[in-house]
Amino acid sequence: MSRILEFSSLTEQKYSWVEHLSFGMQQRLFMAIQLETMRINRAEVFLFDEFLMGVDKPFRSRVVNALTEFPSGRQIVLHASHDHELLLRTCPTALCVDELGIKYSGPTAQVLEQYTND
């Protein structure tokens, strides 16, 4: 618990109801819980969708650093995002999906180039 509160910078809100936290604080708490779960290897698959929306730049930087450090070789981290910089920093491989299914797959830089050229 203390690691989660410290990572999310919510130590002062330790006894607050989640519903009383701002959207950004809730996002920070959610990500800190997920990253701690990842760090202690309590799950093998993590799914995120635009998970850094509403968080400040310093926290965003901490999450990106953690995502390049925490996942073990047996963990799968799948996140949907339109943030190309984030994808390039945190994903070695990528999929581009449309309504018909997988359109492109491969190294992230290559998939983003194909996506941009469409």
Structural commentary:
The protein has 118 residues and is α+β, with helices and mostly antiparallel strands. It folds into two domains: 2-80, P-loop containing nucleotide triphosphate hydrolases (Rossmann fold); 92-118, no CATH class. The chain has five helices and four strands, in the order H-H-E-H-E-H-E-E-H. The protein has helices spanning 2-7, 23-39, 57-69, 84-90, 108-117; strands at residues 45-49, 76-80, 93-98, 101-107. The strands form two sheets. A two-stranded parallel ribbon has the order 1-2. Strand 1 (45-49), helix 3 (57-69) and strand 2 (76-80) form a beta-alpha-beta unit. The protein is elongated, with a radius of gyration of 16 Å.
Please list the strands of the largest sheet in the order they lie side by side. 1-2
Q: State the name of the first-level CATH class of the largest domain.
A: Alpha Beta
Strand content range: 15-25%
String of helices and strands? HHEHEHEEH
Shape: elongated
CA radius of gyration: 16 Å
Named CATH architecture of the largest domain:
3-Layer(aba) Sandwich
Q: How far is it from the N-terminal to the C-terminal residue, by CA? A: 45 Å
CATH topology of the largest domain: Rossmann fold
Question: Fraction of residues in helices?
Answer: 40-55%
Contiguous runs where pLDDT drops below 50 for at least 5 residues: none
Instruction: Please name the fourth-level CATH homologous superfamily of the largest domain.
Output: P-loop containing nucleotide triphosphate hydrolases
Strand count: 4
Task: Note the main sheet.
Answer: 2 strands, parallel
Structural class: alpha+beta
Q: How many domain units?
A: 2
